[in-house]
Design a protein that fits this description.
Elements lengths: L2 E5 L2 E5 L4 H12 L15 E6 L8 E5 L1 E6 L2 E6 L6 H13 L7 E4 L7 E4 L6 H11 L3 E4 L4 E4 L2 E4 L2 H42 L12 H13 L2 E3 L11 E3 L5 H8 L3 H5 L3 H23 L1 H16 L8 E2 L7 H4 L4 E6 L4 E3 L9 E6 L4 E6 L3 E6 L4 E2 L4 E7 L7 E7 L6 E6 L10 E2 L8 E8 L3 E9 L9 E5 L5 E2 L6 E4 L3 E12 L4 E6 L4 E3 L5 E6 L5 E5 L3 E5 L12 E6 L5 E7 L6 E7 L8 E3 L8 E6 L5 E7 L7 E6 H4 L10 E2 L4 E7 L39 H12 L11
Parallel strand pairs: 3-14, 12-13, 23-28
Antiparallel strand pairs: 1-2, 3-4, 4-9, 5-6, 6-8, 7-8, 10-11, 15-16, 15-17, 16-20, 18-19, 18-21, 19-24, 22-23, 22-25, 23-29, 26-27, 26-30, 31-32, 31-33, 34-35, 34-36, 35-39, 37-38, 37-40, 38-43, 41-42, 41-44
Helix pairs in contact: 1-4, 1-9, 4-8, 4-9, 8-9
């Protein structure tokens, strides 16, 4: 059950472990095998033991409550973390709600024999996001730091739980050995006494003491009578000696015990029963001697017997999982509104009554804010009621340091040279409340154009030059897709050396970085972009995730990393492609007939289940796959007396693709005993090649250009003279961007 305590300068905290696993581990120790122990808490729940470190100092265990998503407005907590109570857990939820960290409607405790805490949500609140928020802001997730400190040889030692179990198993083996030795001594005494009693009565030695006058004579007479029939181990043998060998000499207590036998017992003495009793003692002594000689085998049998006798209904209660780290900023509800006063240089959620302030976006108390000013400097600061970041704010928004898709497109004019530069950049690696420069930092520098693009979208802008500019063409287009995405400190590319009058957006381009790669991690039951788990594909805005459930329904959902998937009830989870065909085999509940159907996903509604098998009671989905050429092995019986046969069926050849509401084709008129797929979902989708950021896009349908093979290039003297004359010409007279 675990133990914890504290003394002068020392403390110990040993986690509870599962009884059955401890017994099995002890058996592994005795057999010389490797093993590992993990905590098992009586309150159940979930545990992440990836940093357990065998219970030693420096380790940590993360514990979570089991939260069930009952429906879109109700969450049910089934288990609580070890060390907490239902009352304390509910208080932490209410406290987080009052602090506007989570949004709930009501918390109800229906705990009786089993834990059941209902968390009711108001309409429009995401249950998946609320689950993460409960783990981030309440006692639904806690951390425990184990510290296995035990006394060994009168000294405190810090050891791992495996080492402690090895010591404990060794001591248990010594105790079992001592127990066997005590039992052996008791059995030897019983055998000794029973043998002397049998000889004393059967050979009527008791009659010889009738003539004795003193106690000493009685004892001597009995001792002399016994010596005719017994001898001690090591005593010199007589000729044709058939005396019984005793394990120890006859003592005075043995003689006294014989004199205390009553006449009634002597008269009813049964030699056969006495012999059976002695033989039984001999068998028990032989068994004990065998156990002592094979102590390891006996100890293993002891632990296995404990497991058999007491292990029932002691299964592991705590599920071992690997938790993803819940970022508080991502799950905090947007309980504040961000405002900006561009002219005076203030940002915050307390500017609502400011006439010059304008609303920017919803945010939470935990968010960071980025503010980019007209002079090309920016600052990231923690959101507050009112914060001064500098006058003439051009852009303000919520900053996420882990967002590698938010790309800024900017055009600025350098104050020293008057040259206009364009750049595309990411903002990363910053320190709060520190001012950074996005330009050369010269006096008079000014940002002419700036956009923030959440998915690295490029854009085409129209640049209108000043009327005083010497260029013949006063207006031209510039495509940001031709620029590479670089860091915030990059200078950028020259757009023009002429004075710019105005820049306007002409069109928004595609995402430069392409669709975002999505992976599914079945351990934490969530999607991610970090490469954990199975690769689903690159998702653009219009792409969705297809989920097929064991109950014969499917659902389309957006590829959100906040969604928890019910993995035990999922048959198929993949990216929905236009060519995706679902092949399914199911049993109709009414007719008990097996059907095969193949269909495209025709619905577009998100987060709604559609049942594609018969809705009669008892209908059951047997198999479902999106593989192009699925094969199934079927075990059937043609009649009651026939043997079972096995057939392999190509589902794509058995039936054509039909509508998702179609019943399908009947599989067989014979009795089907079993069916399972022989093909899996195939390999993961091919990973897209990483393109160079900001590279110029080839025209649609154009073949990739191949390097032209050329021979030696001849350069004439006239061409060399022209090139040298061009190099001597001043750059201002080159006529760049003038036509």
């Amino acid at each position: 059950q675990g133990v914890e305590g504290i003394a002068v300068g020392l403390s110990t905290k040993i986690m509870p472990h599962n009884f059955c696993e401890l017994c099995q581990a002890s058996v592994a120790v005795l057999r010389g095998r490797e093993f590992q122990l993990y905590p098992d808490f009586p309150t159940g729940g979930l545990a992440d033991i990836s940093n357990y470190q065998s219970g030693q100092r420096g380790g940590k265990i993360r514990l979570r409550a089991t939260i069930e998503k009952f429906d879109k407005t109700l969450l049910i907590i089934r288990d609580i973390p070890y060390g907490t109570t239902t009352t304390a857990l509910m208080e932490s939820i209410v406290k987080a709600s009052e602090a506007n960290k989570i949004k709930i409607k009501k918390v109800v405790d229906n705990t009786a024999k089993n834990v059941e805490i209902q968390v009711q949500l108001p309409p429009g609140i995401s249950p998946d996001l609320t689950i993460d928020a409960l783990y981030a802001f309440t006692d639904c997730e806690i951390s425990i730091s184990p510290n296995t400190c035990v006394i060994i040889d009168d000294k405190p030692r810090f050891v791992g739980v495996e080492d402690m179990l090895r010591l404990s198993t060794g001591k248990t083996a010594r105790l079992l050995e001592r127990e066997l030795e005590i039992k052996q001594q008791e059995l030897q005494e019983k055998w000794h006494s029973a043998s002397l009693e049998k000889i004393f009565i059967e050979n009527r030695i008791y009659r010889k003491i009738e003539e004795c006058e003193t106690w000493e004579q009685i004892l001597e007479t009995i001792d002399a009578g016994l010596k005719k029939f017994v001898r001690v181990e090591g005593e010199k043998l007589k000729k044709d000696d058939a005396r019984l060998v005793l394990r120890r000499p006859v003592s005075e207590d043995d003689l006294t015990r014989l004199t205390e036998i009553r006449i009634k017992r002597i008269s009813k003495f049964d030699g056969f029963k006495a012999e059976e009793y002695i033989q039984k003692l001999d068998a028990e002594l032989a068994e004990v001697a065998d156990h002592l000689a094979n102590l390891t085998r006996y100890a293993i049998a002891y632990f296995e017997e404990l497991l058999k006798k007491y292990g029932t209904k002691r299964e592991r209660k705590t599920q071992l999982r690997t938790f993803d780290v819940v970022a508080a900023q991502k799950v905090a509800i947007a309980n504040q509104k961000l405002y900006v006063n561009r002219q005076d240089g203030f940002v915050g959620f307390g500017l609502k009554k400011d006439d010059k302030a304008e609303f920017v976006t919803d945010c939470s108390d935990l968010d960071d804010i980025i503010a980019i000013k007209r002079d090309g400097t920016f600052m990231v600061t923690r959101i507050a009621e009112k914060t001064f970041v500098g006058k003439d704010i051009l852009h303000a928004g919520v900053y996420n340091k882990n967002d590698d898709r938010l790309v800024y497109n900017m055009v600025y004019v350098d104050g020293a040279s008057g040259i206009s530069f364009a750049k595309r950049f990411l903002v990363s690696g910053i320190t709060r409340d520190k001012s950074y420069d996005l330009t050369k930092g010269t006096k008079g520098t000014k940002v002419l154009y700036l956009t923030a693009n959440p998915n690295s979208e490029s854009e085409t802008v129209t640049i209108q030059l000043s009327d005083k500019a010497p260029a013949r063409v006063k207006q031209f287009e510039f495509d940001f897709a031709e620029l590479a995405i670089k860091g915030k400190g990059s200078m950028g590319n020259i757009v023009t050396k002429q004075l710019i009058k105005k820049i306007t957006q002409k069109s928004l381009g595609d995402s430069t970085l392409g669709g975002r790669e999505v992976f599914f991690d079945s351990v934490v039951s969530k999607l991610n972009h970090a490469g954990h788990g199975r690769y689903l594909g690159a998702f653009d805005t219009e792409h969705v995730v297809l989920v097929v459930f064991k109950d014969g329904s499917y659902e389309l959902t957006a590829p959100s990393t906040a969604t928890h998937f019910d993995v035990p009830n999922i048959v198929l989870l993949r990216k929905l492609e236009p060519t995706t065909v679902i092949s399914a085999v199911y049993v109709d509940g009414e007719t008990k007939a097996h059907y095969v159907k193949r269909f495209h996903i025709e619905t577009t509604t998100l987060d709604k289940r559609f049942t594609f098998i018969s809705e009669t009671k008892g209908s059951k989905l047997l198999a479902a796959t999106a593989f192009a050429e699925p094969e199934a092995e079927i075990k059937l019986q043609r009649d009651k007396k026939a043997d079972r046969e096995t057939e392999v069926l190509r589902l794509d050849q058995f039936i054509e693709v039909k509508g998702w509401k179609a019943m399908g084709n009947k599989l067989s008129y014979y009795k089907i005993h079993a069916l399972h797929l022989l093909t899996d979902e195939g390999p993961e989708p091919a990973r897209r090649e990483v393109k160079k950021r900001g590279g110029a896009k080839p025209e649609e349908g154009a073949a990739p250009a191949e390097p032209e093979s050329v021979g030696a290039v001849e350069v004439t003297a006239e061409e060399v003279a022209q090139s040298q004359a061009l190099l001597r010409q001043p750059k201002a007279q080159l006529g760049l961007f003038t036509g």
